[in-house]
Amino acid sequence: MVRPNRINSAVTNGTTSENMIFYRDVVDGLKADMKHLQSKYFYDAMGDRLFQRIMKSSAYYLFNCELEIFSKRTADLASLILQQDGPFDLIELGPGDCTKSGYLLEYLVKANADFTYFPIDISASIIRYIETELPQRIPGIKITSLEGEYDDMLTKAAALSAHRKVILFLGSNLGNMTPKQSLTFSRKIRSHLHTGDLILIGLDLKKDPRIVLAAYNDKEGITRQFNLNLLKRINRELKANFDLSKFEHYPTYDPATGACKSYLVSLEDQVVSLIAGDNLEMISFKKGEPVYMELSHKYTIDEINRMAQQAGFSIAGFFYDSKGWFVDAFWRAM
Ligand SMILES: C[S@@+](CC[C@H](N)C(=O)[O-])C[C@H]1O[C@@H](n2cnc3c(N)ncnc32)[C@H](O)[C@@H]1O
């Protein structure tokens, strides 16, 4: 078995500075006029498990649509990557448990493609899972894992070799940014690539708004638990005293803009305290006040084409699921 290598970010290895950054982000977010929390903090070990349950829920169509593309069109996806000769680095941003990308990785290893896989994830438990499980599922795969944020770790991964790059950004993860942030981030990715390098982006398409909204409001209440779990994490890591029964999950979808947003609404007037080191903050919530938790933006193909072009990419291919609800788009650096 080939042993995975690991690269950690300076501030995401369990140090006090990591805790202080989390504290600052949470306090700044909760003291803003529009209270908000950053969705990247959803993914502690329990958040990872809850997200795996969301993926299996029947309402969350995004997972099954993209799974269909990766399991049924594996050879077509791989052939686009293998059109170019030579060794390459396959960098995946936010891979989760690799259920979908695993199909492509396995195909490429069996085809004797000369590549190293670089999973970049902020979740320590996901990185540990990939390092342990992937070599068993795909014997012979070469892995260098990077635990940390997309931005930092992409810079590190891109500098590790002169090989051509293929980036995977699946699961509509880019949709967690606003369209403006997405364009900025796509340009940043482009700045790390050479002409001809590829990025495969999975994006959710605009469709019947009832189908979209139901995906974020599953009957089993798993998405609700997933959102509330961030308050639990803040209680544990920042010695806070959120009473979870005093907040309710509230998703919205605006079919005109494509913005699907999740909120936690305060069910009464209340004050919550948070502590890190010598710092203590008291945050007041009004009855009915929302805390903005996450954006999951939906796109049209025209909007995706425009973003690709403005970020410096041409379109190399589109792969749709059989319902036409989700797309994996190959962009080539121009
Ligand atoms: C919604 S899951 C999607 C997983 C997988 N791509 C899929 O399609 O099933 C998002 C993943 O991205 C990671 N993630 C979220 N925000 C991140 C960030 N800012 N930097 C690095 N990883 C992040 C999470 O830990 C999680 O594993």
UniProtKB/TrEMBL annotation:
Annotated signal sequence range: none
Key words, A-Z: Methyltransferase, Transferase
Domain Histidine-specific methyltransferase SAM-dependent per the UniProt entry, residue ranges: 23-332
Keyword Methyltransferase included in the entry's annotation: yes
Record's keyword annotation contains Methyltransferase: yes
The protein's name in its UniProt record: L-histidine N(Alpha)-methyltransferase
Lineage: Bacteria, Pseudomonadati, Bacteroidota, Chitinophagia, Chitinophagales
